[in-house]
Amino acid sequence: MAFLLQKPATIAIDGPAASGKTTVGRMLADRLGYLFLDTGSMYRALTLAVLQREIDIYDEAAVSQVAEAVAISIQPTGPHTDGRFYTVLLDGVDVTWEIRSPAVDSNVSQVSKYRLVREEMVAQQRRIARDQAVVMVGRDIGTVVLPDAPLKLYITATAEERARRRLADRQAQGNPVDYEQILEDIRRRDATDSGREHSPLRPAVDAIRIDSSDRTPDEILEQILALVNA
């Protein structure tokens, strides 16, 4: 008797900043022919919009109003050959690299804490996943956005390794960098993301944990593909 093995239609990947989840998620989506959605980029784009409007990031009502007003779109890379994994549009403007600035890094966790902000973003993310196969990456995908995803992963790494990766990214973009400052930002963001009231960063109870500290993205990809095909 033959059995048809069906790949999971939705794959949820969570983890802290610079854990490698975005790189691996994009590679996995490419291999499977799935849509890739980095939900963190949506929160980063919103944070950029708040900063551009010179709104106090601690003003929950004002930040929530921006979340309801702006149009955020995640699209394929298109003709761009600058190393991006996808293109982020904020009200129709390409902000793919602007959302990776130190200012956004420092403020995105605070902006992401607010209930109405998360409700608005989660609603958009669920609509995207409703009618297509997707690899969705973030911090609350397996616990909140797609709790019924058949495959949930939690990718992490030491704070020191994640700071080294963020340092390399900043240097490649030509931004001034300081390792100790980046490490401090990483640790502060971990504390904020894990301690927030709404949708805190934590692995789903049924998530498979993967430590990427001493492993290449290709090695992790092969492990995940084995899980997908199991």
Order of helices and strands: EHEHHEEEHHEHEHHEH
Tell me the distance between the termini: 18 Å
**Fraction in helix:** 40-55%
Strand content: 5-15%
Biggest sheet details:
5 strands, parallel
Based on CA inertia axes, which overall geometry fits? globular
What structural class is derived from the secondary structure elements?
alpha/beta
Please provide the count of β strands: 8
Task: State the helix count.
Answer: 9
Q: Kindly report the spatial arrangement of strands forming the biggest sheet.
A: 2-6-1-7-8
Indicate the mean pLDDT: 92
Low-confidence stretches: none
**Measured on Cα atoms, how large is the radius of gyration?**
17 Å
Question: What would you note in describing this structure?
Answer:
By secondary structure, the protein is α/β, with parallel strands linked by helices. It has 9 helices and 8 strands. The chain has helices at 21-32, 39-52, 60-69, 102-111, 115-130, 141-145, 159-172, 179-195, 217-229; strands spanning 10-14, 35-38, 72-75, 87-90, 93-94, 134-138, 151-156, 208-211. The chain has a 5-stranded parallel sheet, with helices on both faces. Strands 3-4-5 form a 3-stranded antiparallel sheet, covered by helices on one side. A hairpin with a 2-residue loop joins strand 4 and strand 5. Helix 2 (39-52) crosses helix 4.
